[in-house]
Amino acid sequence: MNSEPIHQNLSTSFVNLEALVKHLRGLQFVGSIHIELSSYEADIVFPEPDKIEAREYDHSAGRTSHGMPALKRILARAREPFGRISVYRSVPNG
Is-above-0.90 flag for pTM? Predict the structure, then answer.
């Protein structure tokens, strides 16, 4: 699968990430959301409809985390200003 950008460089100052995740789940979205903040990045992946995976990379702490605890931290961190959010849809190879 390849990915196709839908939205790029959306500001965390204006985007409610939790609402975006709920909206995409309701659409049975397959793809990913990438979040970038200072010394921190994360991915929320929708590998198939009704399934969600989360990974975070805290470069300051040197920590990588996965799963629901990571998703909760991602949603909290995405409330910080000056971050960027990008959304990518998975598309079949071909």
Answer: yes
